[in-house]
């Protein structure tokens, strides 16, 4: 029996087509930017005469390191901005009452609405990344052929595609992390603030911990590898791994970390999207999400306060007092930002106390 079902009419692909039309200007804008910036900067910064003069055949690794930095700055940074813009453009309607009522009135399951948007974002990010890689290949084919000969092109190609794999995983992890924050937050300003705080809490706390230990124990050293400091910051992990390893081998172990970040954030974002009440628009964020933000803020505040007073006063009581002061300041500041008053301050004590306890 021949099936009359058309996959083009399935809800998931209908959402895909609708979002493709809605986000068309954003796709065109970033497509043009990422088609021109790497090519222009590569032509300006990678001078074949300099390469010929500075490096011999054995120095091709220096040239590969230079183009890796080019890909990171001119390719990955715009792609991360593109991922953030896509997440806001696709899910920003959740914080607008009129749009939310309209979308939830459409006879389409929430799972299809989420997966259709995620599919569009994944395809768009990969296609735009291919545009970036195409421009980098054009620059390298020209310069490497001129400077070191075409026989070394395979080595350059391999490095470019390896960088591309890192960039794919990085932007997907950043996209799903941004989606999770936008879906869980009350408004776009709260999403932006929470994104910055959640991204900075662990690197800041870990870095200050290392500084405190090293200042307290003269002969004890902890690793301050920048990649390790950004393991829980999807927007920074891939960028730091690429940029910091420009002159060394890429840390392959970062790839499963990026994949895990994308998977965890994607699953949590999907769960939060499907369970988010319609009446939450413009009324309140997820309690669990705000608890997590308060926890990170209190922990980071305790680290900053303790290290600040320890640095200036160089005394253990100042270290303890600074931790309490920093955690309390972060707790009160978030309450003012969320509730615009201190009436419910004690109700959120558990998150602040847990963050301080973690410190």
Search tags:
359 residues, mainly alpha, flat
Tell me roughly what share of residues is in helical segments: over 70%
Strand content: under 5%
Element pattern in H and E: HHHHHHHHHHHHHH
Radius of gyration, taken over Cα atoms and rounded to an integer in Å:
24 Å
Number of strands: 0
Instruction: Note the overall shape.
Output: flat
What is the typical, i.e. mean, pLDDT?
77
Structural classification: mainly alpha
Number of helices: 14
Give the CA-CA distance, first to last residue. Answer: 65 Å
Largest sheet: none
Q: Can you walk me through this structure?
A:
The protein has 359 residues and is mostly helical. The protein is 78% helix and 0% strand. It is built from 14 helices and no strands. The protein has helices spanning 11-22, 24-45, 48-54, 60-91, 97-105, 110-147, 153-184, 188-216, 226-229, 234-244, 254-275, 287-313, 316-339, 349-358. Helix 2 runs parallel beside helix 6 and helix 13 (316-339) packs antiparallel against helix 14. The radius of gyration is 24 Å and the shape is flat. It starts with 10 loop residues before the first helix and ends with a helix. 39% of the residues are buried. The model is unreliable at 1-8 (pLDDT under 50).
List the helices and strands and how they pair.
Blueprint lengths: L10 H12 L1 H22 L2 H7 L5 H32 L5 H9 L4 H38 L5 H32 L3 H29 L9 H4 L4 H11 L9 H22 L11 H27 L2 H24 L9 H10 L1
At a glance:
The protein contains 14 helices and no strands. By secondary structure, it is mainly alpha-helical.
